[in-house]
Amino acid sequence: MRRAIINAVVLTMNDRMDCLEKGYVRIRDGAITEVASMEGWVPDGEEECTDAAGMWILPGFVNTHTHTPMTLLRGYADDLPLHTWLTEHIFPAEARVMTPEHVRLAARLAFAEMIRTGTTCFNDMYFFSQLIAEEAKKAGLRAVLNDSLIDFPTPAFRTVDEGLALAEELIQAWAGDPLIHPSVCAHSPYTCSKETLLKAKRLADRYGTLLQIHLSETRQEVETVKKQTGLSPGEYLHRIGLLDSRLIAAHGVWLTPAEVQLFADNGAAIGHCPKSNLKLASGIADTASWLEAGVTVGLGTDGTASNNTLDMVEEMRFAALLPKGARYNPVAVSAGNALRMATIEGARALGLGDRTGSLEPGKRADLLLVRSETVNMQPVYDHYSAIVYAMNSGNIIASMAEGEWLMRNRKPVRVDEEEALQEVMERFGVKAGI
Ligand SMILES: [Zn+2]
To answer: Which CATH superfamily is domain 61-349 in?
Structure first.
């Protein structure tokens, strides 16, 4: 398919942060072939041409940590201490609710919300990942995912070895797919034994995939891991050989400066989840120090049970504002850096920096059209400031992944959101209960 989007402000998010005040993006068979100023524009009569005057074109958002089927538990047990929330409410509800059929339905609801809020690529850890992959493929979203290995029985597998076999099956089933990128997921160092972590690492190494884990989310986790291993969680992962450029750790709230340095030295990435960390009272991560140390930092919403949205615009705004207030430092994380975390740095954190996250020839066409001429954003003195501090997801008009439209005129094109919404409302929520 041949496409062009013209007359827009193009924020490339490349290494030079190039911005074209009036430019175009040309797309052939899912790839970006040209990003240039309109001065050099030569029409090609055979391509679909979209006039995006009054809009920005920017890379699609990359959500580096989520659990999509948890949309069914949005707001289910709020405002409780983390341990009570998780063990007395979330885990039992998951055991009751998360059938394969419900996981598919939950994923469809999640994907409609993600598309409406600008996500084109997400990193998921849950159960029944084959079904989530199938739904993501139908929706047209780029997905990194696999089942979450954990040392107790789950709705999808009873033992770690069963989980590993399922994970390997998923990796083989989607090999070479342009949108679905299987990974390996180990839940955390306090729910996975050393043996489980090493098995996960060996599987990731065998196929060259990303390895995802929750790490240093709460102070209690740090104490537990220290008691078990004598090391803090980051040091422990390093000691057993997990900390490398194919690892992404979600949260990292309690990482010490020495651990942050280990992440930087070994090229390991962090999926920063500012809203979830606040809602579960886990803490406020010192992201400015991570960036200073040179760690690759992406943004994640976490699951909707602890957020309660999948909205990367909100996540980006929290990522820019929180460190300012927490560290009394207005220059801690700039708007440009927050947008980088939501796009190119997130892509790098997932090992997809050569495919997505910026608008450059050779990359896949994963992008957003955002209306700038709106009452909540004008006047615009600085593009990054307007996007990070003033924009809301309603300003996102259209999006595409792999050169195919995900949303046009604010309507998802490949997910039947009305059907998913009705079904969820009938089966869950105040009226239905769970
Ligand atoms: Zn999580």
So the answer is: Metal-dependent hydrolases (3.20.20.140)
